[in-house]
Each structure stands twice: as structure tokens, then as C-alpha cells.
């Protein structure tokens, strides 16, 4: 005991008892120790002698303090020494103007400072360093926030426009936080910068730092959340501010940006920006459906970064620290392995392939590249050692010591050992003191290939042929000039803190993003949190049956195709609501228990549009000029939550049952299919705490059509509890289901706002039909709906030449009945054509009003031609078109909107709804066909659904040409027409039949074996070619085959008078690149006949086979595909005396003997051997080089 006391007297450490990574530090009371003499901010420029460190830290038990003090001095000199006194920002030393701060780099600098603060927080007597470091990090974060708040006007505009010119800047002046000159012109739209800032904000506030000071700042952060909610369809410049890899000032969708936005939304949802001391009104809200769209888009893009970038080192920061955007081990593993395989070098990771920035081949005078310029950067990219440190951090989080050792071993030789900047600038520093500062490990910015040195080395070694030439890498010289790479140095400091076990992964990630969502600490349950519930989920290889009801009801076809199915034990509470008591009584006779709106009181059922209005108050701020949440519809996930608003309980029904929406909800078959799709979607995508509640709004009109038995069957399946093998449901009373529901408290609504709400008037009430006398007790008592199928010819009709007075008299004096509905529609259209929607029919009754009335009457009798025609005249548009387009684009597809045979609009990047609206109702679509403006919307929605559920149907289809797909559906409709005199058209069939017909068109060529066993006659070769050509389907590896042909065709490929040159195509692109495939599709789009397009594809395949088997062959002159097909048809005509040679040739099977392939091969061989055919007006590029280049050896 006395020995221990004497030891305490001799040793007087300055910390209390603590345990940091295994170091036990005893308690002490050192009365003579002056706490204020510990190093402070002003001591950062002083020189520290090694002898002082040995004297102060002679005790091994205080080794932890020695390490922390070493890192403290390192952070002070290498990072904090450059922090601006006024704004708290850090400059980017690589800019020509050293007064520019980059947001992403500043966030990582603040993380490094904050990480060291986390280490000191575990020490009681830290000499005030934890507070000092924490406030330095806060100063930087608030500096970024203040810079952004100066651009509040841009935030408000960006919410609705997502334009690059209205984006928040990612660069600011270090000293005053002002905008950088000409910054709007390039590289400012960085979704990742906002996302990583918001994520770091949550991490720091969770660690008890106070960063947000006022409600104005809370509103501004909420607006930042709004701006990243649509990251899934907002092309940006990416984390490297380059846009596409071509560096031509074009944005594109980046998986890294979307992944970081997804992670930020998860962290922000339900988070209190005031920390533990916050009130209800300082909470941030996130749209669950927006998060889900970002999640599915991110999962779809991986492991690819973007359309032009096959992979990117930014994905390492996205799937790992600091974002941890995904926890699917398969996707994370494939993404990381691809980055390592494609980007890892001896001196670090390339940022992306053909990245020319900072290479000695890049022109310093031009900010952007010219099109042929990118080829010279191939295999000449800079390598960034910073990513070795990122991989070390990733290994520590994964507890993978092998990975840590591997990348530390690779990184150590790449660090620069230099004297720090203060030793060079302080003239009073002695040589001995400078010696003590040497060997400081500094992260090099990049290593580049020194071509001058490599060329001189190659010349000196040219005499020794046995010497293998090595690539000469040189390190960037910024550090020697005192210009530190702060981004990389911050990552390296964090890496060292983790390796030395001074910092734990929980310290660096307080909200535990490195853990799966179900294992993270649960926050206050008052607000919904986006997290995976503890449910079993797996995706086996299973077949999913999909029944198909085609137009010809006598020929149903049941086919099964492989589907991506996720099994889950999530139980969905389904609550059926009858609009009237008598409907409730009728359903009760069939054993289906429902509730009426009156029976669920005081709970109110609201339309989703009313909830959108309430959310319009979220984040609204008059000082900034913010309007609140954009008027975006509430998705199905949002309607499955229960909302508490000022002591009122509100629940919304899904948009599927919204009668004021697009006309597709009037189709009962499609409604039932959408209910199943909604339930399957909820099962797959529900990530909120609690069980979802799905309201089914039952109306009397649902029992009037011929599909009433299908409705009863669906309700019976729900009552049993098993809708399918993948969907578990439970029929519940609403009052019972709320006990386990996901409840969202909308505390941002104050008493003043709530007092203006008329709660009862907007709620759904019980329906009473005063026109029907008495009560019905069975389905046989309900008025039946008469189905009418009659197309509308609006070009030639009886009202075309009538005077407007006669048209008004007809409309006003003729009753609207089933027989006169078509005439009323044509008469009203004639008035619309002459005077527009606002033209008066009678007093206070315009053309628009009468069209809306006709729409309602047509919905009653299911007259789809009138419904579509009137909807198009009213310029109706479905809400979910923009997400549908984005869903196709992120899966590598290109969409064209137009009419077959006319000019099309190419959609190669996500578009806003108003942009899609302008295309649909422009002269290109609406001007040529009124029906197509709405048919294309139906088609786009259905294709998006099939892309999610049956993506294999679109194999070989890169460009989805909606007008051509409709043409394929017309061909399919003709094939299934039972009677030649039948007048069924696409305009007259129901939306559900449109969906089933689309499925048939997409699968019929894939499943010919199924068709041959059915009662349907197999299709001819002509029909197959027409269908494949209309769908723009090509064989597997088709574009790689065209690339191989282009390599053997020096003068390019010619099709439809369009020449695809060999150069610079081969130098600018790669064979696996999406942009090359799109270039080929652009050529094929010049073909206007679907069958001929299919022949062009067959010709390319035949040429590829011939060239692959004869590698010595190539084409001297341009390869004219049209000439070859024309010659093949002529050869066929000569041998068969065909009257219609092209049609007969189209009908030939694809075979070498007796088929089209045999004729094509003969023509190709003749073309290669006949020198006269290959003569051209162009100069022979092979003249004087090799005259026998195309001859067979």
C-alpha cells in the first residue's frame, strides 16, 4: 500500500482515470501544474524539441498523451494553420487563386479536426483542447452554412428547376465567403457536397457540438434536404467537378452523388438540429418515397458510376467511410472489387479512367476538352495515394487487418517527408530546430506520369533491348512550395488516429452508419426513422406467374417468366373503407368486413393532395423567401403512415384511388392490378419503423362493371391473409391497426396554421346517392355499366364544317347519353379547335367545363376512346412520369418520345415533369396525334413497371422508342384480331388491356416455344422482324461486334447516308462504353422501316462472323450497309423471280441455307473481292502503305 502511495507522489499525471483503446490512465491532483501553459492555439507556430517530449512523457503509462499531443501539433500546423480567421474556411492550395475554398475539402478538414476532438473528449484534464478543436470544426461548418445562406434565392429556385445555374455553389472566397467569379459557368452543381455536409452535420451534433443556432438556420437546412431529395434524377458534376469523363461541361447522373444523398436523407430524417436540447419544431423531415427512389436508383446504378464512367474512386467514399450508403454485401463487394481492378495503380487509385486532370498532357489554358482529346489520357491518368488511406480506414471499419496492412505497406513509400511550412517561413528558426521537424509524413496530392523523363529514359535504354521499360511516375510538387493537399492530409490524419487506436470507429461514426440499419441505436420514436426492420429478406431464383388478358378474350395466355422476388415477413395492415353504408352491407353478405368514414371517427381520411398542402408549411421562411416543401405528390409509402396533427389523427389513401388524377384509375382491372403492385412495392421497399397501413377505398361504381367478381376475389384473398407467396397482409379495423403503425408527428405546424384548417370539409365523408331510390341488398340490384368500344375519327366528322352557333345549339339541346357521347365529343372538339378551352358555350359554361363533364360520363360507360380523346384535349398528365423516365435511364436505357414515322425527342437525362409535358403536348406529338399524347403516358408507366419487375424483357433493347413500341403493339393487336372486320384499336381498349398487350409484345419472340404449344399460330419471319425492329431489339454483344467491324473499316461505316468514321470514334470511346452503343443506335434510328432495321442488324452480325473467322480481311472503302442489303435482295430476286422481293426477303428465315443469311454472306464476299465495287470518290488511305491490305493470304 505504501509503495503505491509513493508511486503516486512521484508520478503526477494530468488526466483522470480513463480507458482509451486499452490504455488505463490513473487519477491525479497535481497542484503545481499550470493548466494554462499547455499548448494553445497561439503555440501552433512554436518549435517543439524532442528533448522536451522525452522529459514530459517519460512514463510509459502516459504514452497516450504523447501520441495525442503529437497529433494535436500536427493538426495545428498542417490544417488549422490555414483556416481563415473570418469565415473559418480552408483554402484549396491547388487552385491558381489560393483564396478559393472547396466545400467537400472543407468538410473533410473539419472531420479531421473533429476526429481529434473526439479523442480528447475521453480525457478529463484535456487542457481545453477538446473544446478548442470542436469549436474549430464548428467554425468551418458554420462558415459553409453562412456562405450557402447568402445564396438563399438559388435554393428556392433549385427546388423546382434543378438547373445548373441555380445550384448552390461548391466554391467560395476564403476570406469573405463571396461567390467566386464566373462560378456559375462550371462545376457548381454538386449534390455530393450538400449531402456530405448534411451527413457530417448530423455526426457532429450527435457528438454534442452546437452548430445550428436559430430557427432560420433550421429552415435553411430543411431546404437543403428538399434540394437533395431529387438527387435520383438530377445530373450533376460529381465530386471531382468534371461532369462526364469527357470534361465538356455536361452533367450526368452519378451513383456516388445519389448514394451520398441517400445516406444524408437517412441521417436527417427525424433528427433534431438543436441536439438533445432541441424542441419539436427543430426537427428535420424527409419524404420516405423520395428516399426510396434514391435508394432504388443507387442500387440500380451500382457498380457503375455513370453513363460515361465505368467506375470511379468516389464510390469508395460512398459504399464505405464516411457515407456507408449501402449494406448489401454483394453490391459493396462488386463495387469495391471493380474499383480495385480498374483504378488501382502502384502509386494510388485513379479517380476514373481517362482522367486527364493534372497530367503533363493536359493543356493548362483550356478548362474543357475537345472531343478527340480524351484518347491521349488513356493509361496516362494521375494516381492518388489518398485512396490508399481510404482503403485503410475501410479495412479498420470492416475489421480486416489484412487489408489494413496491405494498403499501409503500399502507402508509406508514397508519403512525402518534408519540413513543415513554418520552418521555411520563420527566419529565426535554427538549423537544429528545423532538423527536428523533418520527416513529417505528408500526403502527396497525386503522382503523374512524367513523359519527358520517360522518353529520355527510353532513349538511353534503346540500345539494351532486354530492358523492360518502366512507367516513370513523378510526385506533385505543391508540398515543396508549402501548398498542402488538405483533403488528403485530413484523410491521412484520420487514418493514423484509427491505426494508432486513439480513435475508435464509434467515435468517428457516432450515429453508427457503418452498422446495418437494424443494428443502429434507435432515436426518439416520436418521429419515423428510415431503417430496415429486423426482417428476413432474401431473393431466390423463383418463377412468378403473371396472367394476361388480351383483347381477344377467347384466347387467354398464361406465361411464366423469371422475376426478381424478395421474400419478407412484413405484414401489411389492409383497411377497406366503403364509401356508403349500403355498399358495406352488400360486401358483408360476401364475408368482407369494411368500415365507413363515419365509423372510424375521430380519425379522418384525407386525400393525399391535402397532406401536400400541409407540407407546404415545412421549412417556409419569409426572411429567406422560402415557400416550403415543393408541391410533390405523396407516394404510396407516405400514405401508409399515420399523421398526428394538432391532436388530430389523419390517414391518407394512396394515389391509386385518386379519382381526380389521370384517367387510368377508371379502369377496374388496372385498379386491381395496381393494388397488387402497391402491396408488392410496400413489401419490398418499406424501410420505416412500424407496420404500414394500406387503405382500400371502395366505391359503388367498382361493383357496376364486369370486373366485380375480380374485386371480390381480391378482397377475399386479403381476408385470408396471403395475397401471394411474397405478400403477407392482414385485414384489420383501422382503430386496431394504428396501435402498431408508423406514426409521424407534424410538429412544424403551429397553432396559427392549424386553426385555419377546416378538418371536416377536406376529409372523406359518407357517400349518399340521391338519384337512386331505396336500398340494394345484393349485386344484382346494382345498376350495370354498359361498355362501349367505338373509335373517334376527329379528322373527318360531321361537325367539321358546321357553324359555331349550330355547334353550341347541339351541345346545349342534346342530352348526353351513351349513343350521343361520341357526337358531343366531336362537336366540343370543333369548338376547342376554333377557340380553345376557354371559349364560351353558354353563360358561365366553357368548353373546358363541358369536356370535364364528358370525361365523367365516358368513365361511367367505359368509353376509352372518348376518355383518352378528352383527357388529351384537357392536357392531362400523370404525376409519376418523371420517376418512370428516371427509372429507365438509370438502367442504361435511352427513351425517345414521338410518333412512328415522325421526328422524335430523345430523353437521355432525367427531366422535370413540365419538360415532359412540353414534349407530349408539342407539335411533334399532340400536333400529329391527339391520342398519342396520353397513350405514350400509359406506355411509359407500364414500361417502367415491367422494368422493375421483369428487367430481362428488355435485354437487347438499349433505346426505348415509345412511338415504335406503339407500332409494335398495333402489329400485335392485328395478329390477335379474331375478326377481320373488327374495329378494335389501341384507342378503344382499356388501359389494362394496353398493359397486357405490351407484355405480349415484349415476350412473344422470347417465348416462341410457348406459343407453338398454344392454340395461336406461330408468327412468320416477317412478323418477327417487324416486331424486333419496332422494339429496337439487337442480339447479345451486338455493339461490341460493330466495334470490331469498325476496327477493320478504316473509312468508316455508312448507313442511310450517314457515315460513322473510324476516327475519332475509336480514339474517343471504348467498346464497352455506353456512349458508343448510343452512337450506333443513333445511326439505326435513321431507318424508318422496322423490318429493314432488323435486316441491318442481321447484316452487321453476318459481317462480324465473316471477319472473325478471317482475321486478315478488312474493308478498304466505307462499308455501305444499304448497298449490301440491296444487293442481297437483288440476288434473291434473280434466283426466285419474286414479284415483291423485299417483302419476300423479309419473310426468309434467319439461316445460312435457304435463308437470308446465305444471301448476305455471298454479297459480303463479293464486296470484299470485287475491287470495282469498293472504288470511292475518297482518297485511298492505304495508297503507298500496303496495297494488299484487304486481300486474303
Automatic annotation (TrEMBL):
It is a lipid-anchor. Residues 13-23 have a biased composition (Polar residues). Keywords: Calmodulin-binding, Carbohydrate metabolism, Cell membrane, Glycogen metabolism, Lipoprotein, Membrane, Prenylation. Residues 67-963 form the GH15-like domain. InterPro entries: 6-hairpin_glycosidase_sf, GH15-like, KPBA/B_C, PHK_A/B_su. GO terms for molecular function: calmodulin binding. Residues 1-23 are annotated as: Disordered. Pathway: Glycan biosynthesis; glycogen metabolism. This is Phosphorylase b kinase regulatory subunit. The lineage of its organism: Eukaryota, Metazoa, Spiralia, Gnathifera, Rotifera.
Amino acid at each position: 500500500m505504501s509503495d503505491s502511495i509513493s508511486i503516486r507522489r512521484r508520478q503526477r499525471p494530468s488526466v483522470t482515470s480513463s480507458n482509451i483503446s486499452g490504455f488505463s490512465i490513473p487519477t491525479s491532483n497535481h497542484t503545481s501544474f499550470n493548466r494554462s501553459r499547455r499548448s494553445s492555439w497561439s503555440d501552433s507556430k512554436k518549435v517543439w524539441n524532442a528533448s522536451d517530449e522525452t522529459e514530459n512523457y517519460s512514463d510509459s503509462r502516459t504514452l497516450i498523451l504523447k501520441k495525442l499531443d503529437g497529433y494535436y501539433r500536427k493538426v495545428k500546423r498542417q490544417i488549422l494553420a490555414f483556416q481563415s480567421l473570418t469565415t473559418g474556411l480552408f483554402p484549396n492550395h491547388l487552385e491558381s487563386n489560393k483564396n478559393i475554398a472547396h466545400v467537400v475539402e472543407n468538410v473533410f478538414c473539419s472531420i479531421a479536426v473533429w476526429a481529434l476532438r473526439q479523442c480528447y473528449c475521453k480525457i478529463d484534464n484535456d487542457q481545453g483542447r477538446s473544446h478548442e478543436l470542436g469549436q474549430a470544426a464548428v467554425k468551418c461548418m458554420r462558415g459553409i452554412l453562412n456562405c450557402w445562406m447568402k445564396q438563399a434565392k438559388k435554393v428556392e429556385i433549385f427546388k423546382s428547376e434543378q438547373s445548373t445555374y441555380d445550384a448552390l455553389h461548391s466554391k467560395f472566397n476564403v476570406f469573405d465567403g463571396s461567390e467566386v467569379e464566373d462560378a456559375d459557368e462550371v462545376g457548381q452543381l454538386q449534390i455530393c457536397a450538400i449531402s456530405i455536409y448534411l451527413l457530417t452535420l448530423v455526426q457532429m451534433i450527435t457528438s454534442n457540438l452546437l452548430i445550428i443556432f436559430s430557427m432560420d438556420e433550421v429552415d435553411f437546412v430543411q431546404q437543403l434536404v428538399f434540394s437533395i431529395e431529387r438527387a435520383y434524377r438530377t445530373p450533376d458534376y460529381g465530386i471531382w467537378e468534371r461532369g462526364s469523363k469527357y470534361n465538356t461541361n455536361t452533367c450526368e447522373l452519378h451513383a456516388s452523388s445519389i448514394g451520398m444523398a441517400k445516406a444524408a436523407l437517412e441521417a436527417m430524417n427525424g433528427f433534431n438540429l438543436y441536439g438533445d436540447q432541441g424542441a419539436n419544431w427543430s426537427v428535420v423531415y424527409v419524404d420516405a418515397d423520395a428516399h426510396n427512389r434514391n435508394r432504388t436508383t443507387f442500387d440500380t446504378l451500382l457498380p457503375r458510376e455513370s453513363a460515361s464512367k465505368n467506375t470511379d474512386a468516389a464510390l469508395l467514399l460512398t459504399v464505405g467511410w464516411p457515407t456507408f450508403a449501402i449494406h448489401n454485401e454483394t453490391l459493396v463487394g462488386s463495387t469495391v472489387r471493380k474499383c480495385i481492378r480498374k483504378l488501382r495503380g502502384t502509386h494510388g487509385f485513379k479517380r476514373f479512367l481517362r482522367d486527364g486532370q493534372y497530367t503533363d498532357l493536359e493543356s493548362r489554358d483550356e478548362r474543357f476538352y475537345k472531343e478527340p482529346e480524351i484518347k491521349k489520357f488513356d493509361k496516362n491518368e494521375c494516381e492518388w495515394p489518398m485512396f490508399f488511406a481510404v482503403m485503410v480506414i475501410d479495412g479498420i471499419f470492416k475489421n480486416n487487418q489484412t487489408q489494413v496492412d496491405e494498403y499501409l505497406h503500399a502507402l508509406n513509400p508514397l508519403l512525402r517527408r518534408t519540413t513543415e511550412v513554418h520552418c521555411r517561413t520563420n527566419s529565426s528558426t535554427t538549423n537544429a530546430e528545423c532538423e527536428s521537424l523533418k520527416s513529417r509524413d505528408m500526403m502527396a496530392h497525386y503522382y503523374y506520369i512524367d513523359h519527358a523523363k520517360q522518353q529520355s529514359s527510353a532513349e538511353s535504354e534503346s540500345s539494351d533491348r532486354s530492358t523492360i521499360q518502366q512507367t516513370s511516375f513523378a510526385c506533385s510538387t505543391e508540398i515543396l512550395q508549402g501548398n498542402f493537399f488538405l483533403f488528403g492530409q485530413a484523410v491521412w490524419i484520420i487514418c493514423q488516429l484509427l491505426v494508432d487506436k486513439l480513435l475508435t470507429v464509434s467515435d468517428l461514426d457516432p450515429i453508427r452508419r457503418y452498422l446495418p440499419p437494424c443494428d443502429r441505436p434507435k432515436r426518439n420514436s416520436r418521429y419515423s426513422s428510415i431503417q430496415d426492420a429486423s426482417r428476413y429478406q432474401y431473393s431466390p431464383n423463383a418463377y412468378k406467374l403473371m396472367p394476361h388478358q388480351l383483347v381477344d378474350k377467347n384466347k387467354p395466355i398464361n406465361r411464366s417468366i423469371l422475376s426478381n422476388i424478395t421474400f419478407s415477413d412484413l405484414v401489411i395492415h389492409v383497411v377497406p373503407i366503403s364509401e356508403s353504408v349500403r355498399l358495406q352491407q352488400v360486401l358483408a353478405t360476401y364475408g368482407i368486413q369494411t368500415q365507413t368514414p363515419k365509423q372510424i371517427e375521430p380519425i379522418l381520411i384525407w386525400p393525399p393532395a391535402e397532406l401536400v398542402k400541409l407540407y407546404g408549411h415545412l421549412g417556409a421562411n419569409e426572411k429567406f423567401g422560402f415557400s416550403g416543401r415543393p408541391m410533390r405528390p405523396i407516394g404510396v409509402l407516405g400514405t401508409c403512415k399515420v399523421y398526428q396533427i394538432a391532436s388530430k389523427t389523419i390517414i391518407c389513401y394512396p394515389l391509386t384511388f385518386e379519382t381526380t388524377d389521370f384517367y387510368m384509375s377508371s379502369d377496374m382491372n388496372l385498379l386491381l392490378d395496381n393494388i397488387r403492385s402497391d402491396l408488392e412495392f410496400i413489401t419490398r421497399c418499406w424501410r420505416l419503423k412500424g407496420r404500414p397501413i394500406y387503405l382500400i377505398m371502395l366505391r359503388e361504381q367498382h361493383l357496376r362493371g364486369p370486373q366485380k367478381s375480380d374485386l371480390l376475389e381480391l378482397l377475399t384473398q386479403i381476408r385470408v391473409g396471403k395475397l401471394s407467396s411474397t405478400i403477407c397482409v392482414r385485414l384489420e379495423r383501422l382503430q386496431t391497426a394504428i396501435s402498431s403503425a408508423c406514426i409521424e408527428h407534424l410538429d412544424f405546424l403551429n397553432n396559427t396554421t392549424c386553426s385555419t384548417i377546416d378538418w371536416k370539409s377536406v376529409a372523406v365523408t359518407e357517400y349518399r346517392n340521391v338519384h337512386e331510390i331505396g336500398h340494394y341488398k345484393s349485386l344484382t340490384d346494382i345498376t350495370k355499366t354498359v361498355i362501349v368500344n367505338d373509335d373517334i375519327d376527329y379528322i373527318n366528322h360531321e361537325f367539321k364544317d358546321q357553324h359555331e352557333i349550330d355547334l353550341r345549339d347541339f351541345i346545349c339541346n342534346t342530352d348526353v347519353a351513351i349513343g350521343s357521347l361520341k357526337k358531343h365529343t366531336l362537336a366540343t372538339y370543333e369548338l376547342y379547335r376554333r377557340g380553345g378551352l376557354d371559349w364560351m358555350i353558354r353563360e358561365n359554361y366553357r368548353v373546358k367545363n363541358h369536356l370535364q363533364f364528358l370525361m365523367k360520363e365516358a368513365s361511367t360507360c367505359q368509353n376509352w376512346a372518348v376518355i383518352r380523346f378528352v383527357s388529351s384535349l384537357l392536357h392531362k398528365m400523370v404525376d409519376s412520369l418523371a420517376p418512370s423516365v428516371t427509372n429507365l435511364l438509370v438502367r442504361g436505357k435511352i427513351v425517345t418520345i414521338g410518333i412512328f414515322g415522325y421526328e422524335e425527342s430523345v430523353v437521355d437525362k432525367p427531366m422535370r415533369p413540365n419538360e415532359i409535358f412540353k414534349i407530349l403536348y408539342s407539335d411533334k406529338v399532340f400536333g400529329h396525334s391527339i391520342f398519342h399524347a396520353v397513350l405514350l403516358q400509359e406506355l411509359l408507366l407500364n414500361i417502367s413497371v415491367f422494368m422493375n419487375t421483369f428487367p430481362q424483357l428488355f435485354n437487347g433493347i438499349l433505346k426505348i422508342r415509345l412511338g415504335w413500341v406503339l407500332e409494335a403493339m398495333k402489329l400485335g393487336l392485328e395478329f390477335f384480331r379474331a375478326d377481320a372486320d373488327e374495329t378494335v384499336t389501341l384507342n378503344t381498349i382499356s388501359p389494362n388491356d394496353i398493359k397486357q398487350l405490351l407484355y405480349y409484345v415484349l415476350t412473344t419472340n422470347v417465348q416462341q416455344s410457348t406459343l407453338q404449344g398454344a392454340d395461336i399460330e406461330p408468327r412468320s419471319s416477317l412478323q418477327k422482324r417487324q416486331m424486333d425492329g419496332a422494339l429496337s431489339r439487337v442480339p447479345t454483344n451486338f455493339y461490341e461486334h460493330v466495334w470490331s467491324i469498325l476496327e477493320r473499316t478504316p473509312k468508316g461505316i455508312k448507313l442511310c447516308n450517314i457515315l460513322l468514321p473510324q476516327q475519332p470514334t475509336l480514339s474517343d470511346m471504348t467498346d464497352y462504353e455506353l456512349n458508343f452503343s448510343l452512337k450506333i443506335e443513333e445511326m439505326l434510328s435513321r431507318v424508318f422501316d422496322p423490318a429493314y432495321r432488323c435486316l441491318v442488324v442481321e447484316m452487321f452480325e453476318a459481317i462480324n462472323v465473316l471477319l472473325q473467322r478471317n482475321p486478315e480481311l478488312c474493308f478498304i472503302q466505307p462499308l455501305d450497309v444499304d448497298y449490301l442489303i440491296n444487293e442481297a435482295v437483288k440476288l434473291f430476286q434473280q434466283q426466285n423471280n419474286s414479284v415483291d422481293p423485299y417483302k419476300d426477303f423479309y419473310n426468309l428465315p434467319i439461316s445460312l441455307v435457304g435463308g437470308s443469311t446465305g444471301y448476305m454472306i455471298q454479297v459480303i464476299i463479293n464486296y470484299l473481292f470485287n475491287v470495282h465495287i469498293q472504288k470511292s470518290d475518297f482518297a485511298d488511305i492505304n495508297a503507298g502503305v500496303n496495297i494488299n491490305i484487304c486481300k486474303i493470304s
